[in-house]
Amino acid sequence: MKKIIVLILLFTLFSSVNAQRKPPVELVEIASGELQWPGGKGIVLKTFYLGRTEVTAQQYCDFLNAAGIGGKIPVVKAPGRDVEWFSECCSPIEYNGAKWIPKMIPIVTGKGFAGSPVSAGNYPMGSVSWYGANAFCEFYGGRLPSEAEWEYAARGGKDNPNAAKEIYAGSNDIDLVAWYGENSNSPGSSHLSEGDPPGMKLRAPPGTHPVGLKKPNYIGLYDMCGNVTEWCAGFIDYPKEGGEHNGKWRPGTTEPTYYKAARGGAFWLSRGSQTISDRYAYLIRISPSGAVATTQSGLGFRFACDKK
User: CB-based burial of residue 241 (10 Å sphere; 0-12 exposed, 13-18 middle, 19+ buried)?
Assistant: First the structure.
């Protein structure tokens, strides 16, 4: 009994400390309202907060250093295989022997070549697994958004008069609001993806851009479409291994599938995969076929929390 009481007290103290930490992200209050889900089902959402931008490399470094995480990347004991919080090779951060810092990364210049390295501090934190994204949010007393919350916010909340008409978050002109496959190799893009070394190709490959450069949506959120795909909290029903999903998407379910939901397109995807309604399913543990958890360079996240 004493052990149980002690554990409860420790958990309560830890949760209290988390709630008191101020997240290093600017938050936007998303007023309560209803999202019309495909099929005519309305989902009522309570007021919550969402990061104005995707979590950046500098913010993730601040988290790791504040949490006392040394040079060894934490792993999660997922079924079948340990999963790292993030992939060091393709993420925009590194450990310098004393603390985590943003990498100096090659970027694309006006001539299309990889130019002089710059700090990745204001670029989105990519190559992060669901566990690494969730750890950041929990450390600051928050969470990842649900799919319904993400889409509701992307559409501009309850007062956007164009919510039902917008194809992308903030506009029907994708180039105004998103970094995607056809424009993300423009000056300023990073070169963190797998492939040839920087400068080896005449036309530089697509990459991420610093957050907040494009036009925001109706409620002031940046990069809700494009740049990096954003992890969501819930599982997705994706039962056919290596094949098409069966259409039975269940936002917010706790069913122990192999996939978590992600939204928002990415820098390497075409314009047809960047819409507000596009949905993705990414592995969070080893699957029956041997596929492993996803930590690709185009996967990032956004901080969310409840209104107290």
Answer: exposed
